[in-house]
Amino acid sequence: MTTSAALSVEDLSIAYGQGRNRFVAVRGVTLDLPLRGTLGLVGESGSGKSTLGRAVAGFLPVHAGTIGSGPERPRIGVVLQNPRASFNPRMTVHRALLEAWETVPAAERRLSRDEVGAQVLADVGLGADALGRFPHEFSGGQLQRIAIARALAAQPDVLVLDEVTSALDVGVQATILRLLRRVQERFGLTYLFISHDLAVVAQMSDVVAVMYVGRLLEVGPVADVLQRPRHPYTRALLDSAPRLGEPLANAATPVEADIPDPRRPPPGCPYWTRCAHGPLRHPDREICRTEVPPAARSDRDAPVACHFPLRPDADPPHEGEAAS
């Protein structure tokens, strides 16, 4: 772990099932979450990004590797995509906030039992009148604010934010993103921000990591990865992102075939079956079919897992894309 990391993931693997039904959803991922900063984690459905987030949060057992930050593991909170599914419909907002607050050791609590409800709601722009109400009485945006308040009540050092705006309309999404930035600055939080939306990731992140079929393919500062991508998959994601003023139907297709079954990934590079820069178009690049590239890591010595990385001086993504 680097000295500026709030949390490190080292050679992490997560597996589901047993025997013939077992498959590895995350394979050998190494990442540093920047202290009081944001690591954006992107990839298509089935990439393993949410599995990685749940493992970091402690919801899933670790098959191999480590998650840690030195002698003391930071407190980690979670905010999920669908707030309605994460609240007990029979529990008032106040009770939900108190449950989170009660997880903090008594000697470390910043607020008293009487203070915590109204204070954390104020931190997310809601009044104390919400305390006695139930989840069904709130809009999706309001309930996501309450979900953030509940996470804050547990005094986290790190927040895992898994697709927290994808179920919201654009206007509410922008409001929640502003709130998250304000909360991060006030409390000095570190975010693991998981999203399929490259524009949102570009807006929120300091560092970006790109996952595909359980593997980390590229990682680096947001400007480097989204403006000068080195991995063909990252470039394909950027090329497929809708541009301002362009109908969704006109966006380029991201890749040349369907994502492979993560339970049976292809041999060699996991992306070669879809890659426009690999052996499908360049027969002399057979190594892609047979050898897995060294894993990308959170350091500049190995930022991309590719046998034939793109040149850093290649044409940047189109103006108006997520990297702009």
Automatic annotation (TrEMBL):
Residues 310-324 have a biased composition (Basic and acidic residues). One of its GO terms (molecular function) is ATP binding. GO terms for biological process: peptide transport; transmembrane transport. Belongs to the ABC transporter superfamily. Pfam families: ABC_tran, oligo_HPY. It comes from Nocardioides soli. This is Peptide/nickel transport system ATP-binding protein. Residues 7-238 form the ABC transporter domain. The keyword Ligase does not apply. Gene3D superfamilies: P-loop containing nucleotide triphosphate hydrolases (3.40.50.300). Keywords: ATP-binding, Nucleotide-binding, Transport. Residues 291-324 are annotated as: Disordered.
